């Protein structure tokens, strides 16, 4: 059996992490529902590791009504209290409130640009950027600044860079990884 080389950051002892790396991370995403889910999950990553969030992803999906945008937009104080008492997710009041307000802004962007996908991908003229070894860039700086100007929270340049990698706008598979662009 031939061993696949993966990006160095992948915890090979965590099957969820390996599967995420192999089947999701860096693959271009154009579906607004998936883009919304990843934006919410990435915002919960702030100050934590992605592996921590990924390990709770299934519970986040349940707690956040499968990331149905119109449901999240309408979360009230009772739902916030429910989320804050859910020990299976990251219980940070500021991040939970940001998820709700960010959902509203996400929907405004959809109305403005016909889809969040259009908004996101227009920054690169719908082209994938190939780069490794970074945690931010001029691109993540610009998108972060625009989202913050619109009122989004927990969307700093490092979080946005990680988001762009996750949804494939930036492909950062390392050169030795079996998913590196030159090997595909």
TrEMBL record:
PANTHER family: DNA-3-METHYLADENINE GLYCOSYLASE 1 (PTHR30037), DNA-3-METHYLADENINE GLYCOSYLASE I (PTHR30037:SF4). InterPro entries: Adenine_glyco, DNA-3mA_glycosylase, DNA_glycosylase. It is an enzyme of class 3 (hydrolase). It comes from Succinatimonas hippei (strain DSM 22608 / JCM 16073 / KCTC 15190 / YIT 12066). One of its GO terms (biological process) is base-excision repair. Keywords: Glycosidase, Hydrolase, Metal-binding, Zinc. Zn(2+) binds at residues 7, 21, 173, 177. GO terms for molecular function: DNA-3-methyladenine glycosylase activity; metal ion binding. This is DNA-3-methyladenine glycosylase I. Its EC number is 3.2.2.20.
């Amino acid at each position: 059996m031939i061993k696949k080389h993966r990006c160095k950051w992948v915890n090979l002892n965590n099957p969820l992490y390996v599967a995420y790396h192999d089947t999701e991370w860096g693959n271009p995403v154009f579906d607004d529902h998936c883009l919304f889910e990843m934006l919410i999950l990435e915002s919960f990553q702030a100050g934590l590791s992605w592996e921590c969030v990924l390990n709770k992803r299934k519970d986040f999906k349940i707690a956040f009504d499968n990331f149905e945008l119109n449901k999240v937009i309408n979360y009230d104080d009772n739902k916030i209290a429910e989320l804050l008492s859910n020990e299976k997710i990251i219980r940070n009041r500021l991040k939970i409130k940001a998820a709700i307000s960010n959902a509203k802004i996400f929907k405004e962007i959809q109305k403005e640009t016909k889809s969040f996908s259009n908004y996101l991908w227009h920054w690169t003229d719908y082209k994938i950027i190939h780069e490794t070894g970074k945690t931010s860039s001029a691109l993540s700086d610009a998108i972060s600044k625009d989202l913050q100007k619109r009122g989004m929270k927990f969307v700093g340049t490092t979080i946005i860079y990680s988001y762009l990698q996750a949804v494939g706008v930036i492909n950062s598979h390392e050169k030795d990884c079996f998913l590196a662009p030159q090997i595909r």
